[in-house]
Amino acid sequence: MGSAWGAITSAEVKRYQDQLLADSDFNPEFDQLMDGTGITDWLLTIEEAEAATRRRFFSPTSKRAYIRPVPTSAPLARILNAYCEMTKDASHIRVFDDIPSALQWLGLEALPEIRSAARRRVGRISGG
Fold first, then answer.
1. Where are the domains of the chain?
2. Class of domain 2-127
């Protein structure tokens, strides 16, 4: 599980993704739960956000659930969700308003335990 808070930049998103790739515990088959409820602003363009979703480091069968802050990132989240649905080779990415809905989509009953390696923080984004 990852989490993000505050104003998020494109550089922080890229650093977070790079951190996942460098983590020896990372497995591309993992599903991802990203808690974005603490985000106050997105300081990146739609193009930068699309580029972040196009990076291929998760398996095509992996599910990636993003819990968005309400209503801060509603327009961006809807655009990214539509983009992901139209992109045939993207990982399965869905945007949710709450953690229970995201957990259900991921097939989980509760939040997973987070290993210490996944608790590292990069900028205002943390987790794995």
1. 2-127
2. alpha beta
